[in-house]
Amino acid sequence: MDQVVDFLFSVAQVFLEIAIPILVVFVIKWVKAKISQAEAWINQEPDLHYLLEMIMPMVVKAAEQQFGDGEEKLQYAVNLANMYLHEHGVDIDIEMVVAAVEAAVMEEFPNGSAIGREG
Questions:
Q1: What region does 109 belong to: left with phi over 0, alpha with psi -120 to 50, or beta?
Q2: 44 phi and psi, to 5 degrees?
């Protein structure tokens, strides 16, 4: 009986000596792949649509609080949005920023624009 138990332990030991290094290699490859995915996700380009949707209501409200009416308020909102986008690595045409600000104004104030070129 002792010979059978010794034989089984020997077989188990050989199996583990072979299986553990193989398992470690697969675990290391899996961890490296997950790290690469995380790095790619971190380094991806910021989503312009998401940034615009997130900041435009804040920009419109900030401009609304700072200024009365007219072009000065629009310019403040555009500059503020452009500065925020630039800080997040996004450089877009100023006319796109103006359009995004004006669209946010229409959403924020559907009954009348407090910011805008019409005064």
A1: beta
A2: -70, 160
Phi and psi at residue 51, to the nearest 5°: -60, -45
Whether the per-residue pLDDT at 117 is higher than 60: the answer is no
Question: 106: how many CB neighbours lie within 10 A of its CB?
Answer: 14
Q: Which residue has the higher pLDDT, 119 or 31?
A: 31
Q: CA–CA distance from 58 to each of 44, 52, 53, 62 (Å)?
A: 24, 10, 10, 6
Q: What amino acid occupies position 76? A: Y
Q: Is 70 left (phi over 0), alpha (psi -120 to 50) or beta?
A: left
Lowest mean pLDDT among 5-9, 65-69, 73-77: 65-69
- DSSP assignment of 27-47 equals HHHHHHHHHHHHHHHHHSPP-
Q: What is the pLDDT of residue 91?
A: 83
Handedness of CA 75, 81, 87, 88 (dihedral sign): negative
Residue 114 is predicted with a pLDDT of 54
